[in-house]
Amino acid sequence: MQTYQNVKARCGPQQMSGTHGGRFSLSDRLKRLFRCRKGITVIEFAIAAPVVFATVAGVLELALVMFVMTLSEGALREASRFSITGFTPPGMTREERILEILCDHTIGLVDMTEATVTYKVYPSFNDIGKPEPFTDNAPANGTYDAGEAFQDINGNGQWDPDMGAAGLGGPGEIVLYTIEFDWALMTPLVSPLMGTDGKMTMTSSVAVKNEPFS
Ligand SMILES: [Ca+2]
Ligand SMILES: [Ca+2]
Predict the structure, then answer these.
(1) Nearest bound ligand to the CA of residue 158
(2) Residues having C-beta closer than 5 Å to ion ligand 1
(3) What is the domain partition of the chain in residue ranges?
């Protein structure tokens, strides 16, 4: 254990008498410097502290990001659970009620005025995110080209790489709910690893089947 007496014994006046008539040569000074451990803890802390603080900040930042993602996913499930009933509350639309639920269940951490919430209707769960079917023959290159025949699943008069139709769907239909928003990262040291320009885009989706409401 490093005690004051030990330090004094190693670095004290009795060690300060040099071999050159009381004056220290450079080698004497270097030997004393390497022998002396007084203040070494402060130096070690000064070196390690930035790394420790950055690590702690990164862990807290990551924990907060995961917390917000979990919140937004839970909020989206709650909103879709309301919407599958087809119920329209008095004095507001279903879309307005959905935004209200999302706002409540993200406890104010997500700015709903900046978030993008979308609803898409699909023929089945297997069709989610898939393109509208087309006849690949002009030319046969694996992609849709203008003039090729296609099935206009979402009824908008054009071929789409995602066949989903906008809306909350009718009875028994499959609906995909998605929320997307930018989360402002707080630690400059971590933000380059997790996002761009100090922000991280978060996206959550939930697919449900509407009840046979009337
Ligand atoms: Ca083609
Ligand atoms: Ca279309």
Answers:
(1) 2
(2) 136, 141, 145
(3) 41-129+164-209
